[in-house]
Amino acid sequence: MATLLLRLLFLLGSPMTLLTCAAAGASFPVNVWPKPTSMSWAEPHAAVPVSPSFHIVASSGNPYLVSAAERYAKLLFKEMYRPIVRPAVNVTAENALETLTLAVSDLAAPLQHGVDESYTLEILPTGSATVTAATAWGAMRGLETFSQLSWRAGGRGQGRDLLLVAAGVRVEDRPLYPHRGLMLDTGRTYFPVSDILRTIDAMAANKMNVFHWHITDSQSFPIVLPSEPLLAEKGAYGEDMKYTVKDVKRIIEFAMSRGVRVVPEIDSPGHTASWAGAYPEAVTCAGKFWLPDGDWNRRLAAEPGAGQLNPLAPKTYEVVTNVVNDLTSLFPDGFYHAGADEVTPGCWQADPTIQADKERGGTLSQLLERYVSAVHPLVVSKNRTAVYWEDVLLDAAVNVSASLIPPATTILQSWNNGANNTKLIVQAGYRAIVSSASFYYLDCGHGDFVGNNSIYDDPNSDYKADGGSWCGPYKTWQRVYDYDITYGLTPEEAQLVIGGEVAMWTEQVDTVVLDGRVWPRASAMAEALWSGNRDASGRKRYAEATDRLIDWRQRMVGRGVRAEPIQPLWCRTRPGMCNAVQ
């Protein structure tokens, strides 16, 4: 019997559909985010129904992959995604998709920095599909791609709804960068575990692989550590605003089943006012107003919440040793983020013991070196690579000698001065994680959060073009997408950039607005670091990405992520009409 072709007439042949295909360029009737490295879809584009008995065949050798296979099989039937512009495809009705087989070479490969995440996906029009990958983690990326090539079509009534998947498709995919992360600050705002899990789930859907958990800060110490329970008892916002050991294990296991690493950060010696409730003898300038007389040059902290660990206090090292020991026991990842940003001179200088040390000829940089020379070897002794914010080396006032943080055991994370500081880091021989505030800080542009601020009391000014935010303006998805994290580097220097992270600092963010602040802007970075932000000719592809991101945002919303819109629906149904240039 001849193959039965059911022509889906949803907008097929209408001027809108023809324009959609023409405007999309390399886009397909249904697309994947992030855009794969290589994807082909035989023409005329075809799809097959998904059989009610569809199942995913996975080896039992990796429990995380088994969990992922079960989850994606359920998602396929649960998800009710209907593209805004209905795909014009031929449906081969007699060859329903029965199985997706996962073929993995090395099921035992651990989830660690640099693990192979490549995969090949093939969906045949004959009713079978295969994901081939070197590791379980690459297979998970292939499962996500497969899920995004499915959609609902037809009417919503009984017997009229079709679950379809693209057929005649081959995807060969791998990431450009091994480190594609999101940093979430839970020190300024406590987020329930459910928020963290939803965020990690969305990260995996975007093929992001590092959840950088900035756990503590000056405002609160929400994690309960077995050796130092007093820190959370005195430093958390409340009894119901703590992360227990059970919570941490749950988060790590949840992330592992999605191929996401969890990198912990306990920032120190700066940003540690929250430690003072438990150990006041170890913290300088705690409880003091952060900006004496409103004079920035006399500040005790970069923002409200003054307090820094005292490198001269023996208690400091007793507590920090316990903290590092506990964190490296709880978190299995090979990276440990030790912070070391924004050490404020005024806070240390306000302490009598440090004043006396300075009178004897000591310097603040020597104080930081004393601290780092104790902490760095401890971190390395736990078989960890130490990650620091760039300040530890580049801060103009307080920094350490490079000899104390050897490049072999150290990664530096950039956040100031755009590409300039990234270049300084790699020129010094360090691997770099790029989180430039000018491109990747998702909190920017919402105005400053400090109160009693007379700068706004001017009817003739909107407080400059930055919206009152030190790192304004707001970073739109296009701003995030277009950033090249190796800009200005030589090919040799660029090899030291291991990837990037968008940063969600939470002075003005809580559970109510979290999703919308992060998504889909984090998706923009996810694609730029997975397959790049340029087409085959080297031209930036933000114009082509717009419609795809609108579609991806809609799918994320259907999955329970409250991502903000990037354009009115009118724009997606009229391709190209909302562009700045036709």
Automatic annotation (TrEMBL):
List, for all copies, the residue spans of the domain called Glycoside hydrolase family 20 catalytic.
Answer: 177-532
Family statement drawn from the similarity comment of this UniProt entry: Belongs to the glycosyl hydrolase 20 family.
Record carries keyword Hydrolase: yes
* Species in which this protein is naturally found: Miscanthus lutarioriparius
Q: Give the positions the UniProt entry annotates as the active site.
A: E342
Question: This protein's superkingdom?
Answer: Eukaryota
Write out the entry's keywords from A to Z. Answer: Glycoprotein, Glycosidase, Hydrolase, Signal
Supply one GO molecular-function term.
beta-N-acetylhexosaminidase activity
Listed GO cellular component terms?
Answer: membrane
- Domain Beta-hexosaminidase eukaryotic type N-terminal, chain residue ranges per copy: 32-149
Q: Which reaction does it catalyse?
A: Hydrolysis of terminal non-reducing N-acetyl-D-hexosamine residues in N-acetyl-beta-D-hexosaminides
Give its E.C. classification number: 3.2.1.52
Provide one Gene Ontology biological process annotation: glycosaminoglycan metabolic process
Leader sequence range is 1-24
Asked if the Swiss-Prot or TrEMBL record annotates the protein with the keyword Electron transport, the reply is no
Enzyme class, spelled out: hydrolase
**Name of protein:** Beta-hexosaminidase
